TrEMBL record:
It is found in: Cytoplasm. Keywords: Amino-acid biosynthesis, Arginine biosynthesis, Cytoplasm, Lyase. CDD domains: Argininosuccinate_lyase. It comes from Candidatus Fusicatenibacter intestinigallinarum. This is Argininosuccinate lyase. The lineage of its organism: Bacteria, Bacillati, Bacillota, Clostridia, Lachnospirales. Residues 364-432 form the Argininosuccinate lyase C-terminal domain. Residues 7-301 form the Fumarate lyase N-terminal domain. Belongs to the lyase 1 family. Argininosuccinate lyase subfamily. The keyword Cytoplasm applies. GO terms for biological process: L-arginine biosynthetic process via ornithine. It catalyses: 2-(N(omega)-L-arginino)succinate = fumarate + L-arginine. Its EC number is 4.3.2.1.
């Protein structure tokens, strides 16, 4: 058992206890961050005269060698080590001798693991942000190509009013844009360096914590050593943000699943993102959309588990906090995988524009516009509402759409109707005359698309 403690103990830890306590099985994931943090720590120790320049150079060379050997698969991170910190330090001592024992001067595993996790999460937030940004670019492309693709808008899963596919996709664009904002907020709020906090009460060594923070590209050092080693707020915030991201993906998937049914036929999912049935040769199943929808509960579970783990912990560090890693790692991998697959599915999906427009016409989505037409002729809205209700009932009995009624049929219900009713309730007119900002009309949507373009262009720059 390779461990960094033991002087106070008179016998070996029971193997089952050791295995239960060990974290190497999952914290090996941030070996790079652990070495990166150690390198910054050593440079700071030398700057402060706590290490000599020669000692600094020997330790840095040893750490760089370990990093290169792990990444080139010449050195394996095995279960004989308690955690990633033990692995790095033990191998360093083996390579450079007693000088390696000075690596841990002025720090504890408590502030070390807090640093490693923050460095790892920063990297993951950047990667996740890139995946959300790619999805936004995909949605923008669909919106630009479907400014005049008419379809029904829904409330209560009932056809309500005509909109465009661009407008519908635009709703998801706004959701995922907010998701990016949340990721940015978390990054900025968490970007303070905990290294130098020690176990909980700092250290008597004359550390320059601001220098360490600068080397590691933090905005500064954390302001309370007890909070530094026991803070997991940023993980809870990230799990919450990821829960919102995957909730948005799940809502989107639900619609795609519905749109893919034989009854709707609004979309055709590419073969690369579909599967068939083992016994029913006609089937083409939306498995990716269903799996993304299904994995939502997994991410929610990580958030609830983390909140539950933290709810009763006194200051400062407690071993319970070791539970943060597996939960967070799994949630991150899940959300990143779902974002990548979903973007691929949507970018290759074929939209059945004819089916969408036909569905809008046959669903009385232009009924509100018929009522507005009557209001424009001087009919009070409440009376107009009742007249159009009778029109819809008549169409249902005849199995026709409002567009299919003759002028004589219109006049039989209300003499106010004239020939211009057909233009008033056309899909094009119903949509295009709605041009207040946020509405589906082409003029309004063009302004939104232009604003989106500027946002996406500015997003290519470094955002921290």
């Amino acid at each position: 058992m390779a461990q960094l403690w033991g002087g106070r103990f008179t016998k070996e830890t029971d193997q089952l206890v050791y295995n239960f306590n060990a974290s190497i099985g999952f914290d090996r994931k941030f070996y790079r961050q652990d070495i990166q943090g150690s390198m910054a720590h050593v440079r700071m120790l030398a700057k402060q005269g706590i290490l000599t320049e020669d000692e600094k150079d020997k330790i840095l060379e040893g750490l760089q060698g370990i990093l290169e050997d792990v990444e080139n698969h010449r050195l394996e991170i095995t279960e004989e080590y308690e955690d990633i910190h033990s692995f790095v330090e033990a191998n360093l001592i083996q390579r450079i001798g007693d000088t390696g024992k000075k690596l841990h001067t002025g720090r504890s595993r408590n502030d070390q693991v807090a640093l490693d996790m923050k460095l790892y999460i920063r990297d993951e937030i950047r990667e996740m942000d890139g995946l959300v940004l790619e999805l936004l670019r995909t949605l923008q492309k669909i919106m630009e190509e479907n400014l005049h693709t008419y379809m029904p808008g829904f409330t209560h899963l009932q056809k309500a009013q005509p909109i465009t596919l661009a407008h519908h996709m635009g709703a998801y664009f706004e959701m995922f844009r907010r998701d990016r904002g949340r990721l940015h907020d978390i990054y900025q709020r968490m970007n303070l360096c905990p290294l130098g906090s020690g176990a909980l009460a700092g250290t008597t060594y004359p550390l320059d914590r601001e220098y360490t923070a600068k080397l590691l590209e933090f905005d500064g050092a954390t302001r309370n050593s007890m909070d530094s080693v026991s803070d997991r707020d940023y993980l809870i915030e990230l799990l919450s943000a990821m829960s919102t991201i995957i909730m948005h993906l799940s809502r989107f998937c639900e619609e795609i699943i519905i749109w893919n049914t034989n009854e709707y036929q609004f979309v055709e999912i590419d073969d690369a993102y579909s599967t068939g049935s083992s016994i029913m040769p006609q089937k083409k199943n939306p498995d990716i959309a269903e799996l993304v929808r299904g994995k939502t509960g997994r991410v929610y579970g990580a958030l609830i588990s983390m909140l539950t783990t933290m709810k009763g912990l006194p200051l400062a560090y407690n071993k319970d906090m070791q539970e943060d890693k597996e939960l967070t790692f799994d949630a991150i991998d899940t959300v990143k995988g779902c974002l990548a697959l979903f973007t691929g599915m949507v970018s290759t999906m074929r939209f059945r524009k004819d089916r969408m427009e036909e569905s809008a016409k046959n669903g009385f989505t232009n009924a509100t516009d018929a009522a507005d037409y009557l209001v424009g002729k001087g009919v009070p809205f409440r009376d107009a509402h009742g007249i159009v209700g009778r029109l819809v009932l008549y169409c249902l009995e005849k199995n026709i759409a409002l567009d299919d009624m003759t002028l004589e049929e219109y006049k039989a219900i209300s003499p106010v109707f004239e020939e211009d009713i057909y233009e008033a309730i056309s899909m094009k007119n119903c949509v295009e005359k709605r041009n207040t900002i946020g509405a589906p009309g082409a003029e309004a949507m063009s302004r939104v698309l232009e604003e989106n373009r500027k946002y996406l262009e500015s997003s290519s720059a470094d955002w921290v």
